[in-house]
Amino acid sequence: MCGIIGFTGKLKAQDVLLTGLASLEYRGYDSAGIAYFKDTGKISLRKTVGKVKDLRAICDDDNNSTCGIGHTRWATHGEPSVVNAHPHYSRDQKIAVVHNGIIENYQELKTRLINKGFTFASQTDTEVVAQLLDYYYTGVSAGDSLDAITRMMMHVRGSYALGILFADQPGVVYAVRKDSPLIVGKAENGSLIASDVPALLKYTRTVYYIDNLEIARLTPDSIEFFNIDKEPVEKEAST
Ligand code: GLU
Fold this sequence. Notes:
Layout: E1 3-9, H1 13-23, E2 31-37, E3 43-49, H2 52-57, E4 67-73, E5 88-89, E6 95-103, H3 106-115, H4 126-138, H5 145-155, E7 158-166, E8 173-178, E9 183-187, E10 190-194, E11 207-209, E12 214-219, E13 222-226, E14 232-233
Antiparallel strand pairs: 1-4, 1-10, 2-3, 2-4, 5-6, 6-7, 7-8, 8-12, 9-10, 9-11, 12-13, 13-14
Helix pairs in contact: 3-4, 4-5
The protein binds glutamic acid (GLU).
C-alpha cells in the first residue's frame, strides 16, 4: 500500500503535497513524486526514488502553484525507478495521473494503444490509464474530461484510486476509485484528496467518502461527485 494526495486552493500546493505524503509514509513506498500546474497550459513533474525528504530536496522553493497531485509508490509493475515513479504523463504531457492499485488488463490495453501509435515511457500498468484518458480526451471520438474518465473506467479492470490533472483545466483535480481507498476533504483554504484521514487532518475534519466507481471533481471552492453515467451524486459530509 502507498499513498495519494491532491490539493487545489489558496495555499502553496507543493507544501500541502509534501506534508501529506510525509503523513502517508507509514503505508510503505519505494519512490515518490508530485505534479502541479505552473506555467500556463503545462503540468510539471518532480519524481525521485527514495523518501519524501529526497523529493523535497529536488523541489523548487519558489514553486507558487496552488494545485497539484502527489504519490508514494509501492511498485507492482516495473522496478522502482524515476521513470516508473508516479505521476505519469499521457503522450503529449497534457494529462498527469497518480495511481494506487493494479490494472489487471494493462498489457492488452497497452498493445491496443501501441497499435494506434501511442508510445510508452514506463513499464507500469498505470501509464495505460494516462494514455487511455488521452485517447478518449483527444482522439477521434473525443469527449469532455468526464466523458474520457468514465470511458477509461469502463475499459480498465482491477483496482484503482486515481488523482488526475488535465493541462487545459488548471486548478481542477479529478479523483476516481474502485477497490482502493481515496477520500475527499473540504478545507477553508481549498479542496483535497487523500488515501487516508491523517493526510487531511492538518487542513480539515470535513470529509466525503467516494464510493466505488464514483468520480470527484475538485476546484478551490467546489466539490462535485458523479457516477459512471456522469450523473451528479449528492453526498453528505462526515466529520
Ligand atoms: N501498480 C502501480 C505501479 O506499479 C501502482 C502501485 C501503487 O499502488 O503504488 O506503479
